[in-house]
Structure formats: structure tokens, C-alpha cells
Design goal:
The protein is mainly alpha-helical and 155 residues long. It is 55% helix and 9% strand. 28% of the residues are buried.
């Protein structure tokens, strides 16, 4: 029975790990078979949005732990997963609406170099973030369906 109560916490931790790995990946890449690189000015540190996503994942873990005692706090991982999913949809939609949309070929004319064709595709970041967000939502749902720790109140 104790392992059943730990299941939502383990799911939330797995979602958090996926979010952490996702924030260290690229949003877009040059498609395989095309030459070119994407330079974003990223120096290796997480930007403020990625740092907030990691913190939101940590709050989701805290909600899953707290839901073991107070069932109504199982909504926290669900809400935190929703925040991460919103970021993913916003970022991907922004890439599709950009002048150099995803999955379309473009001819580039870099100065001092010959022209070449490139295609931009989604990287691993949105997929890992979406998986992490869905795991947080699943942790909240699992936490809301479990029995409380014996002898503990819901208040």
C-alpha cells in the first residue's frame, strides 16, 4: 500500500526530469540532410522561461508529495502541467507563425558564402516538455484517486 501512495510522487519526479532535460535541448534544429546551423546566442545557461519551467516542475513535485496527506492539493501538479503545456503550445505556434516557418525549405544567401537550402524542424525540447507536463498531470490525477495516509486528516 505504501508503494501505491508513492506512485504519484514517482510520476511527478519522472515528469520533472523530462522537463529538466527538455529545457537543455533546442527548440528548433536544421533538418538532417541539410547544411547549416542555428545560432541563437544561447551561452549554455537557462533563460528565464526555461528556469521558470524547471521551477514549475519542482512545484508539481511538491504538490504530489503534499497530496499524500491533503487530497485537494493533487490539483497542483495538474495546474503546473497545464502551465508547461501552455508554454509548449505557445512556443511551437510561434515557430509556425514566424517568417521562416517549420518544415519548409528556404534558400539562404549568407554574405561571403554560396547560397544553400535549409529546412528548420522542431528539436527535442517541445516533445520532452510535453511529456513532462503530461506526467505532472497524470501525477495529479493519480494523487487525487489514492487513499490518504491512515490516521491523517484532509485539512
Amino acid at each position: 500500500m505504501e508503494n501505491d501512495r508513492l506512485l504519484p510522487v514517482m510520476i511527478a519526479v519522472t515528469g520533472f526530469v523530462a522537463i529538466v532535460f527538455g529545457t537543455h535541448q533546442g527548440l528548433v534544429h536544421v533538418a538532417p540532410g541539410y547544411e547549416g546551423t542555428i545560432t541563437s546566442g544561447w551561452d549554455g545557461d537557462l533563460n528565464h522561461e526555461e528556469l521558470l519551467l524547471v521551477l514549475v516542475g519542482g512545484v508539481g513535485i511538491g504538490g504530489a508529495v503534499a497530496a499524500r496527506r491533503w487530497k485537494h492539493l493533487a490539483s497542483i501538479p495538474v495546474l503546473m502541467g497545464g502551465v508547461v503545456l501552455f508554454y509548449v503550445f505557445r512556443a511551437v505556434l510561434g515557430q509556425f507563425r514566424s517568417p521562416h516557418s517549420l518544415y519548409r525549405e528556404y534558400t539562404l544567401h549568407p554574405p561571403g558564402s554560396e547560397e544553400y537550402t535549409v529546412m528548420i524542424v522542431l528539436g527535442a525540447e517541445p516533445f520532452l516538455l510535453a511529456v513532462g507536463a503530461l506526467l505532472l498531470v497524470g501525477a495529479g490525477i493519480a494523487g487525487s484517486t489514492l487513499e490518504l495516509i491512515p490516521g491523517k486528516t484532509t485539512r
